[in-house]
Amino acid sequence: MTFPLKISLLLPFCLLAAGCSVQSTPTPPTTPVPVPVPPTTSGQIDGKVLAGQQPLSDATIQLFAAGTSGYGTGAVSLLSTPVTTAQDGTFSLIGDYTCPSASSQLYVLATGGNPGLTSSTSNSASVMMAALGPCTLFGSTYTLDPNAYININEVTTVASVYALAAFINPTTLQVGTSSTNATGLTNAFLTVPNLVDISTGQARTATLAANGTVPQSTINSLGNTLDLCIKSNGTGTPCSTLFAAATSTGATAPTNTLQAVLNIATHPASQAAALYQIATTSTSFSPALTAAPNDWTLSVPYKTSNSLQTRVALDADGNVWINNTVSGAVLGRSGPYSSVFKLSNQGAFLSPAIGYFANGFNALSDLAVDPTGNVWLTDSAVSSVYKLSTSGTVLATAQTGISVPNALAIDGAGNAWIANNNGTLAALSNSAVKLPGSPFTGSTLPYPTGMAIDPSSNIWIADYSATLAFGLAAFNNAGTQLPGSPYLDTNLIQTHHIASDSAGNIWLTATQSNTLHKFTPNGVPTQPGGYTGGGLNGPASVAIDGAGNAWVANGADSKSIPHIVEFSNAGLPLSGSTGYASSPVSLIGATPADDLAIDSSGNVWTLPGGYYIIEYIGTATPVATPFSLAIKNNKLAQKP
Questions:
Q1: Which N-terminal stretch is annotated as signal sequence (predicted)?
Q2: pLDDT at 291
Q3: Does the chain have fewer CB atoms within 10 Å around its N or its C terminus?
């Protein structure tokens, strides 16, 4: 079904030049075949394009709907004739175009333009962006909000590109997602207004739900890096200097400002100091950073509690689940007790502020999401396993075969696998009924701390023992230990959480030796002694993104600025010598990072172990969530 919208071109216009190089301007997506529709009228939509604080005249404005047939492809031009900005940078839209569907995600590009130079100037290196979000119903018409004002500048470009980085084609600049990841794209678009007010073009100080701190100074500094290039004619030093600094090792140099931001977002550790020096040449956006950052990641810390948080998991909607130990006084009870938080993908509370809790919750040790969205919890203090609905209601409780459960994983059939502290492996059906033969014996691991299920439905268990020279055991889904298990490797002492990649390789961290380990599906270490570098510092947890890269949460960093680390699937460090640092904010009450997870938008969520969860915006490659559903759909550690 198509939805008619009215939009007319009130200003002089110019077409995107045919045959323009894609290296200087984005390739226009295919214009859809017009569909006859009855005329309807929507309100006028106004906007303005600014280079810093000065108008950008004669810029070409084009409206797109993001594609739905593949990443970075299939975007649809919604204006048969683009609009150009007036002398004061303004533009107005009232006329005919068709929104492909009610859920289409719209964005606008401003290409070229004159920043106040000679009348013939058009800066082909200037490409800016504002992500607008979905078509919505106003009266009887699906349209952009006619009451909204669209402000396109360097700051809206930074916020839009970072949030949508995983969905942007670096050459054509088209935005698109796969037919099976509409959720990831939708959540990425929703992230933009959490960072910036599109109507004013200013970076926010707090997220819309008010519990997240926006890295305003970092966003403004990134905006300042683009400013002098956009204010030039595009052929001189301001742009060439920017493009050189925004080129990572082995990558293609950008030829326009949107490509430059995309390069920075996807290679945030590259030439951080050089980019900061460029940022200091402009004061258009403030407050800005006063010293060069460790890297150019954008991260948002969300305040969630006044207590200890240890595990995080994501459901199919991108919602974030966190287990939590709270003071009994908060719940009106004596002693410490546990609850579980549920946050939206934009960090807003979906659970009560104290979380979901039941009288039996005491010391929640792990959590996982099953293929239907129910959340499972282990409680090591009362040797119980709980199954919760999406609204936090306890649906089932299991204790048979459960003995001080420390780790949990859900397979593609919805069965729950639990590693007990006595070395046994328990298995429950999706109804929380003990499976035949459970609990299974033979792992010999005395203190399990992490579990993962590989694409073949084998169950892998990590052990934290500080005295054993091994820390990994594996079972098939019949409960039989695999040949050679448990597996040995030097430096594999004090392991934490583990993960499987799409090939069935198992990744785990070793805190004591500051190493990251990878085992083949047969239990053979790919690098005896483990991988080092990249900023590893007491690594505590690992997750695999849709490109197969390994992401690690450090457990020994400063509590005020935790770090995460990225490795390629071949074990090469990608995050520089110190890892990626969170934005410079005070995380009062936080402790070093303990767990992390990656969502279907490419955001990395990490727990600093205290009162916050930190979201790194658009840093990773999207991955299918939850793990159990990914296993069921043969999409584990792959793009959805």
A1: 1-24
A2: 95
A3: N
